[in-house]
Amino acid sequence: MRYIIIGAGAVGGSIGGRLYESGHEVVLVARGAHHEALRDRGLTLRTPDEVLRLRVPVVDRPEALELREDDVLVLAVKTQDTTAALDAWAPSAGHLPLVCAQNGVENERLALRRFRHVHGMCVWLPSTYLEPGEITAPAGPLTGMLHLGRAPHGIDDTALRIAADLEKSHFLAPVVPDVMRWKYAKLLANLGNAIRALTGPPAGDADLALRTRAFAEGAAVLDAAGIPYASEAEQAEERGRRVDIRPVPGSPYLGGSTWQSLARGTGSTEVDYLNGEIVLLGREHGVPTPVNETLQRLTNAAAREHSSPGSVTITELAAAVAVLDVDSGR
User: I need a labelling partner for 110 at 20 to 30 A (CA). Which of 48, 100, 103, 165 fits?
Assistant: First the structure.
């Protein structure tokens, strides 16, 4: 199998780099300055144990690559960029397996409109991409935990073969028949990403209170919608101490995907498909979601205005939530 990593950022670069390091065929897909750095200098992948410098083949568009029948596409762009990526790759590759290695739960539905064989991947992979050509993956002893299965459900030989390759490449890769149940659990865990992006490092009781409320809203919405999700106990038991964040010399882990989007000034984040997913389901099922609605609105504003992480104080955020609390009758 050859792996085509569409979106070689933090997650895609970590998966592609580890697969390549372990002897698998990999092609990275990147754009702009990141593509140029990967082409000219290769991928620098920093881990707690070593710095890897990998000359992984890279292209910037589908037309630059001759596809093969043994190719597997790994989609690792943010959800707001999924439709454009699918539009670009589906005409030539719609018959090939596609793995959605992404946060949120919308990507698989988008992909199934264009690809015959879609797999979901629940990505527990702390990683950072801030500079072109450079990725930091601070977890150890394994780089990440990647649950894998057919979308929306099921197991097939392709999933088992991919998982076997990942298991040989510093990942825990359980193959499960209910991958979306794990992805909904990850969605709940991602609801606090926006708080870190907006306010910076955790700030005591007020920060914890908002995170707790964001999660509680999400759980209430999923319960009202009848959507199953893996429990925190299940996730902790599966992960054990095998995917713990550890120090990487010279590369502190500062924040997750939403924080990184603001730090890089991309102009967008995936908040509409994280907190916004909970807001959508809440409106459909009559469950108020003032914390998630506030996080979605303020994060979108910060991205549009190219604000740096930490541009909102926890007091300002709590006050904005309180306004919606009044409107929702809390």
Answer: 165
